[in-house]
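Intended use. Records such as the Putative membrane protein entry shown here are meant for training and evaluating sequence-to-structure methods. They are not intended to support clinical decisions.
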Amino acid sequence: MEGYLSEWLNLLLRWFHVIVAIAWIGESFHFVAVDNSLKKPEDPEAEKRGVGGEYWCVHGGGFYNFQKYRVAPAVLPKSLHWSFIPSYSTALSGLALISVLYYWNASSYLIDRSVLDIPGWAGVLIGIAFLAGGWLVYDRLCKSKLGQDERKLGLAVAAYCVVAAFLLCHVFSGRGAFLHFGGMLALIMTANVFFVIIPGQREMVRAAQEGREVDPEPGRRGKQRSVHNTYFTLPVLFAMISNHYAVTYGSSWNWLVLLAIAASGALIRHFFVMRHRGEKHVWALAVSAVLLLAVFFGLMPAAPKAVAGVSNAELFAKAQRVIDARCVQCHAAKPSPQFGFPSPPKGVAFDTPEQIVANAQGIQQQVVVAKSMPLGNLTQMTDDERQTIATWISAGAKAK
């Protein structure tokens, strides 16, 4: 019953996180698209009212006219939409998820003793330090002289991301490192909203309400951070789903894989941002594709090789003995109660030879490449046993 309740808690928390994240990203993408699609107002009266740009569109059976003021309208409307609840909800639910899945079970998901042998509590403290420290370093860079030059600031932030990815992948398990990299960027995005964008907007509103001249600087800073947020989005989304793809985080060069795919995501986002401005930066898609292809071919497994003097049946029998001893406690039609799974994880069972052969690719990625299974190596699979499975798979992963 405890495992069943835990699974439902995980499901509902993750679902809520996805819902609010979609709301935040959708709203963010919409405003970025509007801001980059603004054209000079066609109505002279709009310019007199202080409108700096407008965006006409048709959607859902109606015409819409979005207008952006150079600073602020002469009279504020009674109702203003504030875009922050989805951002804060995403951050809080994300922190809850990382606490439940990675910090509560640090020895199982976060720590890989073959990467760095540290106790679970130390891993938790390091993880929190990276999540909080990412914002502190980023914010300091933005407030430095580099913040006055977008290109130099972009290079500095990119350099910090390189350092963070390298360190995380040499401290945590692959999946833990990727998750913390994405979490670090996501918290930077939320902190931008909380500490810079919303306070700046509130100051502009107060100035307009009090009849003071509106200082454009808070708006400039908010725009800068908003642009950064939109480029972080796709790298964050990849990091959040990466735990399902051991082929990415299981590589010995996983930090380069992480950076390549993150850069690819940022370039894809750049293409769409510039397209809204009427500029076709196709080169961004081309470079993104090159990066993805480089990762694809770099991680491609070697072709199967026959083992001289040993039949497929013998290789399979050895691999099956390892799987029976180390894996079926969880991956069976009825998992062992001591591991807390009411059903086999992801519906994958190894009760029969046919099931083992059918899941050979997943076994290779999770057991041989990433070494993320058995979970936390609770069944104490040895390197020799992993090699036994690898040999069977390299010979073609056949039962006979």
